[in-house]
Specification:
Two copies of one chain form a homodimer.
Chain A (H helix, E strand, L loop, with lengths): L1 E5 L8 H14 L2 E6 L1 H10 L3 H5 L2 E4 L21 H10 L5 E4 L3 H10 L11 E2 L2 E2 L6 E4 L9 H17 L8 E4 L10 H11 L6 E5 L11 E3 L2 H26 L3 H9 L1 H10 L7 E5 L5 E4 L5 H17 L1 H10 L1
Chain lengths: 331, 331
């Protein structure tokens, strides 16, 4: 399997991306094709003492870099020669099996739609991160690709998310819930009421009804269906609250000698909790609905997170989730 | 000051409501008028041994109870004789200075609008709970009263929230933020972009721009302006995530003897954290925009939470926040 990686996407590019790829290739049994400026990559590889690994990678030369400040649509025009654009076109042309980037999410969504193209019948691609709960992990779909949505889009998000959770995460009959302000079927605005009706009457979907945000951290559903605005709010508030709470617990443990002793006693368990709630451990998130596997890595991913992401990309791609989604939408 | 209390609202009514009121009157220096069925209240008072306190309370007899299953609009028709409706009409008629209920939020919103009436110029009343962060508390406005909003409503939510935080919570020039999927001014849907423009150009408002949900737990703003759907999502996910995290920490501490020892060492600090993140300690939330003080108590409030709520109601009412909001909207 060959994974095309945007070497110039994210806060720590190209250094940590290159390092992560070099460390991942052999253990994961994957080939890597790096999209980015050839000379800069070579210099970076030398600096890191990674010449040998680097020689095993293909380089897809790209003279530009698309930044967080660039407009998403710039990937089609002003930044058509960027590492992200070059990598995605290469994926579309069959020069690799999957594409991963830690760069601009908006541009990645546009690229997935316009360069990689959508699966047949898909209205909009969705950003679909998987997050931890106190029980089993769940997917937010859409986590922010589409700020404004129609009800038929939400139905597809549910179908795509369900197919992914079943094929990649091994969840039997994934519980699909609609994020809403109450559990009763009449709750929410027109969008929610229409989406509820569509989801409920869809054969083959295990729709569990409306899910209140308060129950999500307790594992109320396997797929949380939302418009991109709501999904992004859920995603970011969830991350922020978990991090803030962990920070407050950490502060308590560092307050004085007595507390430090307590921390030492439960160090292992606390690390376990931290790991459970660490969204980075999930490595990355798929852009569902693209005709080929496209993944977003966390913007501040370091080498270790890049490795985790590449493992996820490999496993997902091997699972054949794109075909599974195509099948689910066709039914 | 006389506070009218819905004796039959919430999961633990009338028992815990009556108990909370009885315990609060003398320490808080308030009079209480109970809205509810006279005979049932008398029987409950006898059962609790509270006849003496009960004699000091006025009873506003109401033959019906409005439940969580009732339609919000039922407060105007089928349930016009409910304790909630009777209490709110009494407030409107000047038979008390404020009204508090732990009952159906939707009905409370309708009652605030139609029975108590809105302040002059207010488009919609808003449910406005104050929540803790790692730093200073913040208000969500609207927390769920209006699922669908226009931009001019969001502007008013910002103005009302700001006046409340300044007058009741003593925050100087409260930082008003718009909950959005990114900090840049062009982010979000049409509603967010229009609201941004209105909030930014409003004199006398300390608008700090868009606030990403991830930064809210760290105290990014004093007033988080949102449509009721988004605000309710923030409110419920925030509560749920904080509770889930506290539960996971608690599980760790109860895992074995070693961990229990660690817990004993930091018991006081952990209780402090729990208290910091406990939304119940804030007692209740105002319905902003009503012409007189109307408060929602937590649905599962017990006597202690009722006491906290009545203290909040007293302090808020004394602060003259209704007049402060009227002033802020007039400017």
């Amino acid at each position: 399997m060959r994974i095309i990686v945007d070497a110039f996407g994210g806060d720590n590019a190209p250094r940590e991306i290159l390092l992560g790829c070099a460390q991942a290739m052999e253990p994961l049994g994957i080939d890597v094709a790096l999209a980015g400026d050839k000379d800069q990559l070579l210099a970076c590889a030398k600096e890191l003492g990674l010449e040998e690994s680097f020689r095993k990678m293909e380089v897809l030369h790209a003279s530009q870099t698309l930044t967080m400040e660039d407009e998403p649509s710039s990937i089609l025009k002003e930044k058509a020669a960027s590492s992200m654009a070059v990598g995605m076109r290469a994926l579309a042309q069959g020069k690799g099996d999957a594409f991963a980037s830690a760069g601009n999410s908006g541009a990645l969504t546009v690229g997935a739609t316009m360069l990689v193209k959508r699966m047949k019948g898909v209205k909009r691609v969705a950003f679909a991160p998987v997050l931890p709960t106190t029980k089993t992990p769940f997917m937010v779909c859409d986590g922010g690709a589409n700020v404004v949505c129609r009800a038929d889009m939400l139905l597809q998000f549910g179908l795509m998310g369900s197919a992914y959770m079943e094929n990649v995460m091994g969840v039997q009959a994934p519980r699909v819930g609609l994020v809403n302000v109450g559990t009763e079927s009449h709750k929410g605005d027109d969008l929610r009421q229409e989406a509820y009706a569509l989801l409920k009457s869809c054969p083959g979907l295990n729709f569990v009804g409306n899910v209140e945000p308060r129950d999500i951290p307790y594992g109320a559903c396997d797929v949380a269906v939302a418009d991109g605005f709501t999904g992004n709010t859920v995603l970011k508030l969830y991350e922020g609250t978990a991090l803030a709470m962990m920070g407050m617990v950490k502060d308590i443990f560092q307050k004085n000698v007595k507390n430090k002793l307590a921390a030492a006693l439960i160090y292992g368990d606390l690390q376990g909790l931290k790991k459970t709630m660490d969204y980075n451990s999930y490595g990355g998130a798929p852009i569902l609905g693209a005709a080929k596997p496209v993944f977003k890595m966390h913007g501040n991913a370091k080498a270790k997170a890049v490795q985790s992401a590449l493992k996820l990309v490999r496993d997902c791609t091997q699972s054949g989730y794109v075909e599974a989604i195509t099948q689910a939408l066709a039914n």
